[in-house]
Amino acid sequence: MKQARRRLKTLIIGLLSISFIQAAEFKDGNIFYRTLSDNEVAVIYPTDNSSTYSGSIVLPESVTYESAEYRVTTIAQQAFFMSEITSITIPNSVTEIQQYAFAACRELSSITLPEGISKIAYRSFSQCIKLTEIALPESITEIEDFAFRDCTGLTAIALGKQVTQIGNNAFYYCPALQQFTVAEDNPAYASIDGVLFDKAKTTLFAYPNAKGSTYTIPGEVTVIGPGAFQGCNALASITLGKGVASLGSNPFMSCTRLQEILVDAENVHFTSVDGVLFDKSQETIIQYPLSRSGFYEIPLGVTAIGDYAFCNCAQLSGIDIPTSVTRVGESAFATCTKLSTATLPDAVTTIGNSAFNQCSNLYRVTFGTNLQTIGSNAFAYTLISSLTIPDRVTSIGENAFSQCPHLEYITLGSSLQEIGQSAFAWSQLIRQIECRSLYPPVCGNDCFNGVSVSQCTLTVPSNAYDYYVANSPWNQFDIQGTGSPAATDELRTHQVSIHTTGNSIVIRNLPADTEVIIYNLSGQTVQSLHATTQEVEIELPKGAIYIVHTGDQTQKVKL
Q1: Judging by DSSP bridges, how do beta strands 504-508 and 536-539 pair with one another?
Q2: How many angstroms separate the Cα of 215 from the Cα of each of 196, 197, 224?
Q3: For FRET with 140, which of 5, 202, 260, 357 sits at 20 to 30 Å CA-CA?
């Protein structure tokens, strides 16, 4: 028994020693390697600052290091990143090419891939601008996200019979790409006139960037994949066939010459009005052609501006949003660089994430009275100089007004409860804030990062001064408790006073025998008690947000 234990112990020590053998790095010829095991190596990025790969490269199947022979099996992550190689031949011993392996090889015009690899990794050939063609071996089963992004010279892609998975944006911004071809016996994909479809030809995955200026989607197609036409700068007119029932996210992204989107009259899901795409009921505007310029009046009756509906419409100078609209979708007007003003009607309750992000000439926005939520990044990188948040808004998302270099004056409404992380970060000219809420809104990290808060005047209701003084980051401002008292209705709702100090939650004006329950954001009870006095102080871990429930009142606080 003891002998068996010794053998087991020796075996374990041996295995542990093998697992901790440090990989060796060495140079053979002009190529740098790293050992992966006792008989395999990877090609790696040069480990001395004086070296770089250039010219024509032929990799060997094996190399010798310290009298041992190693097979070359891997091209490591970033191995040839930004190198000046012009061509490379990779031996069949290589079974893996990792992320960014040849990214930004701007002189690479020819590559021979081995038969043993199964996938083209994430961004492995992105920005290879001189690569005009590439022969994918039959062993390839997967092409990962952004694999050939920004390969501006690539003209054609041939997919073998085993390719069954193509990642998002695998061929993003390949402006010279004219066609996809697919092996007839491929079980997942097919091509029609150079356009990539699923095998059943009911889902359109990708339209080559350099294909013709007009296109009619076949009648049997029911689904347009996300980003299917993105970057098709030659495309001026497209017609949705009668069968199209579903559009993936932002299918016409960066189609900068698109003038009209038409719809087959028999289509029961979509319609076109003057070349603008709507749902069949004309309640949602889905896509405005990117090349159109000037002013556009959204028809009355539209209730939603869809996600990305006007995104990247760089020539759009003005927009009229009707009183019927209740929702502005995600990135709806993002990067509309000529848009200078926006007036949102009273019916709008939600502004989606990045809705007006990077509208670099937007200097004035007017919100309607029923607005409740402003999404993350909604107005980041705009020229807004003053801001009035309506009284029904309860939350402002992360980075919502960050990097607004002209923003000076802010009025925050009386119902505001939460301001997201970095919401006003690096809007460095902010000098005056009026907050009408009786209780300080909970602020995420770095909410006012980059703002000289000590030199910024904060005006709060005269009956709320103590609350703001006790709460960060508000207590870092120059607080003036000279604002109008909080409304009587609000005071009746918030008879109990809840604020924080240090690592404690202080609750005042409690009626006798009030039950106090404190939850974390997961809904778990972290403290529960029956108050026997009008004031209680509860110590809790800092750096967390809590929900405080007292009788009929519930309030969110951050320690």
Answers
A1: antiparallel
A2: 14, 15, 13
A3: 202
Residue 366: how many CB atoms within 10 A of its CB?
11
Let me know: does 218 contact 195? Beta carbons within 8 Å: no
Look up residue 94 and give its amino acid.
V
The full set of domain ranges for the chain reads 388-494, 496-558
Instruction: Evaluate whether the domain defined by 496-558 bears CATH number 2.60.40.10.
Output: yes
Q: What pLDDT shows up at residue 6?
A: 43
- pTM for this prediction: 0.81
For 59-102, the pLDDT digits (tens) are 999 999 999 999 999 999 999 999 999 999 999 999 999 999 99
Taking the CA atoms of 181, 182, 188 and 193 in sequence, report the sign of the dihedral they define: positive
- What is the topology classification, in CATH, of domain 388-494? 3.80.10
Burial class (CB within 10 angstroms; exposed 0-12, middle 13-18, buried 19+) of 19:
exposed
Contacts 24+ apart (CB under 8 A), 50-57: 52/83, 52/84, 53/80, 53/83, 53/84, 53/85, 54/83, 54/84, 54/85, 54/86, 55/84, 55/85, 55/86, 56/85, 56/86, 56/87, 56/88, 57/30, 57/31, 57/85, 57/87, 57/88, 57/89
Task: Give the model confidence (pLDDT) of 347-394 as tens digits.
Answer: 999 999 999 999 999 999 999 999 999 999 999 999 999 999 999 999
Residue 475's φ and ψ, nearest 5 degrees, are -75, 0
> Taking the CA of residue 426 as centre, how many other CA atoms within 13 Å lie in the half-sphere pointing to its CB?
9
Burial category of 383 from C-beta neighbours within 10 Å (exposed 0-12, middle 13-18, buried 19 and up): middle
Mean pLDDT by 10 residues, the chain (559 residues): 46 42 88 97 90 94 97 98 97 98 97 95 98 94 97 96 95 95 97 98 97 97 96 96 97 96 99 98 98 97 98 98 98 98 97 99 97 98 98 97 98 95 98 94 95 95 88 92 59 60 81 83 80 84 85 77
Phi, psi torsion values for 437, nearest 5 degrees = -75, 140
- CA 34 centroid distance within chain: 35
308 bridge partner residues: none
Query: Which two tokens mark 6?
Result: 């010794």
The CA distance from 172 to 99, in Å, is 16
What does the alpha-carbon distance between residue 424 and residue 380 come to, in Å, rounded to a whole number?
9
Place of tokens 């970033």: 78
Evaluate whether 510 touches 497 at the Cβ level (below 8 Å).
no
- Give the gyration radius of the chain's Cα atoms: 31
Amino acid of residue 340:
S
Q: What is the pLDDT of residues 107-160, one digit of tens each?
A: 999 999 999 999 999 999 999 999 999 999 999 999 999 999 999 999 999 999
| C-alpha 21, offset from chain centre | 40
